[in-house]
Amino acid sequence: MVVLNKIYTRTGDKGDTALGNGARVAKFDPRVASYGTSDELNSAVGVARLHAEGDMDTALMRIQNDLFDLGADLCRPDMEQDAQAEYPPLRMVAEQVTRLENEIDAMNARLEPLRSFILPGGSALSAHLHVCRTQARRAERLSVELATVETVNPEAIKYLNRLSDWFFVAARIANDDGRADVLWIPGANR
Length: 190
Fold this sequence. Notes:
The protein is mostly helical. It has a single domain (30-77, 90-183), classed as Cobalamin adenosyltransferase-like (Hypothetical Protein Ta1238, Chain: A), CATH 1.20.1200. The protein has helices spanning 30-49, 54-74, 94-108, 124-147, 154-173; strands spanning 16-18, 24-26, 118-119, 182-183. The strands form 2 sheets. The protein has a two-stranded antiparallel ribbon with strand order 1-2. Strands 3-4 form a two-stranded antiparallel ribbon. Strand 1 (16-18) and strand 2 (24-26) form a beta hairpin. The radius of gyration is 18 Å and the shape is elongated. Pathway: Cofactor biosynthesis; adenosylcobalamin biosynthesis; adenosylcobalamin from cob(II)yrinate a,c-diamide: step 2/7. It is an enzyme of class 2 (transferase). Residues 7-173 form the Cobalamin adenosyltransferase-like domain.
């Protein structure tokens, strides 16, 4: 259980922070950038939810919870020591990726195939979901970069890759099942 009695601790006043295993690193450490960006994404999903209803809101709430799981995973670098940890570390699992894939397939079945790229926009919800999509891609890029120098759970990277796809398809759903998508017209302003 998490208990937050005091919000400020002053432990990071010199520019460092604690990872999930207690190690202290600079606040600009690639691992901190990776899980910090997933936290930014979670906030953007919260804003998108202001415009969502029903099943879409429920799905976005599940994603917000997954993003906290993702942050817990990414903030703990020592996967090879998971078995010796006092408490089993929370890691992303294949089932979370599969759930996103199933949801993408179900949403995509409602849509006509694209014949053009689309511009981010249309409805307010769609615009916010496109912001989420691009933030998910940034979180993915940072996590992939981190994985070149440190151990990163492969399921975390898969999840972020699938999540950006989820946001793309959900943005089309939020645009009247794609009927209100704003199509890109190449060279329109030449």
